[in-house]
Amino acid sequence: MMMDEDVEQASLMSFNDRPRAFPNMRSKTYSPLIFRIIRKLNVRVLSIILLFCFGAIFYMGASTSPIILFVFTVCIISFLLSIYLTKWVLAKDEGPPEMVEISDAIRDGAEGFFRTQYSTISKMAILLAFVILCIYLFRSLTPQQEAAGLGRAMSAYITVAAFLLGALCSGIAGYVGMWVSVRANVRVSSAARRSAREALQIAVRAGGFSALVVVGMAVIGIAILYSTFYVWLGVGSPGSMNVTDLPLLLVGYGFGASFVALFAQLGGGIYTKGADVGADLVGKVEQGIPEDDPRNPAVGDNVGDCAARGADLFESIAAEIISAMILGGTMAKKCKIEDPSGFILFPLVVHSFDLIISSIGILSIKGTRDASVKSPVEDPMAVLQKGYSLTIILAVITFGASTRWLLYTEQAPSAWFNFALCGLVGIITAYIFVWISKYYTDYKHEPVRTLALASSTGHGTNIIAGVSLGLESTALPVLTISVAIISAYWLGNTSGLVDENGIPTGGLFGTAVATMGMLSTAAYVLTMDMFGPIADNAGGIVEMSQQPESVREITDLLDAVGNTTKATTKGFAIGSAALASFLLFSAYMDEVSAFANVSFKEVDIAIPEVFVGGLLGAMLIFLFSAWACAAVGRTAQEVVNEVRRQFIERPGIMEYKEKPDYSRCVAIVASAALREMIKPGALAIASPIVVGLVFRILGYYTGQPLLGAKVVASMLMFATVCGILMALFLNTAGGAWDNAKKYIETGALGGKGSEAHKAAVTGDTVGDPFKDTAGPSIHVLIKMLATITLVMAPVFL
Questions:
Q1: pTM
Q2: Most CB atoms closer than 10 Å: which of 261, 542, 655, 729?
Q3: What is the pLDDT of residues 221-254, one digit of tens each?
Q4: Using alpha carbons only, what angle is made at residue 658 by residues 654 and 660, rounded to the nearest 5 degrees?
């Protein structure tokens, strides 16, 4: 592929004479109520409100800890940088009118779906908040909470408030992710007419805006909640709550974020992939036209790709921060560390530095290139990899500085160095995960090319090869996670921190530090994740507006890289979810011990009821996956039938003489997504609560007081193990199938329209619900299960 301006201009001349059909789905644009209110405010009034809010935030930070002040400052600076990135992206041109029209249709569809979906989610969140309130009003308190004078009502209101705040912030994160995607895609499409590097830079900076806002919101949200509780409850003063117990009050925040993220991921995945499968099967296979061809009525894929990305990313960060804070407080309490604030607030500082170094990595990707010189298009993945390598180097430096600053204690002067090594283990683990995911999903490597070759012998061999590739891809990540957990635990255990009996206590916190190390470049990784849907939409806009082949080649290249980055970041998310779930599991056992006032450190699966709990946990993952994939299948069937009907009843569509009814397909997938997301989501929420209550009652009558808690622990343990393996399989197999199709579309094995291509399209349609619905939802599920058990722990006793 060569970038030649003269050739491109010549192709544009012939393109202008082609017949075109464009979607017309414009509707009134939608913004959430809070944004509409802000826009109506006078500038001076808004400035006064912002100054008041900033003053209150910094007052609480100053009253809590200088560390919190540092966190607030970095987060606000990152928000200012994100505003700069937004203005930079929006200043780019949107291209010709036909591109703008299609982009407007995508934006209106995404915003309309967002409004309907999040309206449904908010109603469910309010209902669940009421249930949590009722449960907490009748639950028992820990001895520490009773000693601090924290009554049941106060505990209930705090948990519900944290839950609703987490849900609200998660929803805002989802809106931010959608908002930037639907405005950046057309600008990437327009830039692709000039330069691949410029298109890449716009997509990266748009993704960077979303990533900085999402990570910044997760960090500042938890910091505000922590400092508010600290000041309000008078933490540290005589007769009040101890600071080491404060992180347990934050679990509601993580539960709220997980709740919204699960339903957003389910609904968005069903919406997107229902349309995508329908577009592929009827458009590509039956009619022989591209999925994004303007004659294809199934355009919901372009709409749905932009919806509900940010909520998932927000939840991932929030869950890991809270779990690490809980374990840091627990260890500091056992070791009787004089000032435990450094161990508790360490995760917030790590992510503050993450915002700084990831910003540098994002800005390191430049768009300048001499367009007058003929040269091959630079590999976008190599450009992104350079930015990631720079971010990794900076992460090692800042992480070491953070451990020396916050984790140094006179009781064990060398402990900070051990924890720095734990962080290095996490950083290396993250890099290995990225490499493994890239190896199994990028068509430059052997696995995807082998899968593409299998397509040349038929649809069946393509499916067999894809399934085997996905199964094989679980081995290296599991080995990597295993080595990371054991290494970090050993380093933490040998740090020199011991309890009053001389028993080493730093092991679990070592794994928490490794998790933070893995996530120390999260904002840059999330930037690559957001790059995927933006590039995908840009390709759709170019296809539907019938731009020259040279432009489509650039967007196809970006789209293929986007598939790889999405698979890479999903692998990264699964790895971090595995470590975080291990931490949350340990926090759950500590919380049960606190409520029951009995040591709870082991789960014996030789007890029949506990073993049954493990079976139920494993079954939950398979049943949830089945329902999620079946939901996409049913939605796709409706889309296929509708597209076939339109081609039969409107034969002029194929000759551009009649316009397809795009709105009908969008309505089908929107209605199906809202309907189908309820069942698997309700299964995920209800299962641990029902199992815990049933076995609590059984334990009461059989003389086993902790049976309910033990069975839930077993359920969580098995669900985490099976969930990690299932998510790795689904995400990698789906990404490999997609890129095998992309590889053939570059001209290999007969290119577009060949029998190998048709078989690869079949594989891609099978993989669509794997990688974009069930797979991403499972890694949210396993963390939500952990946060539910933390919130509901007293119910099981």
A1: 0.84
A2: 261
A3: 999 999 988 888 877 777 677 888 888 888 889 8
A4: 80
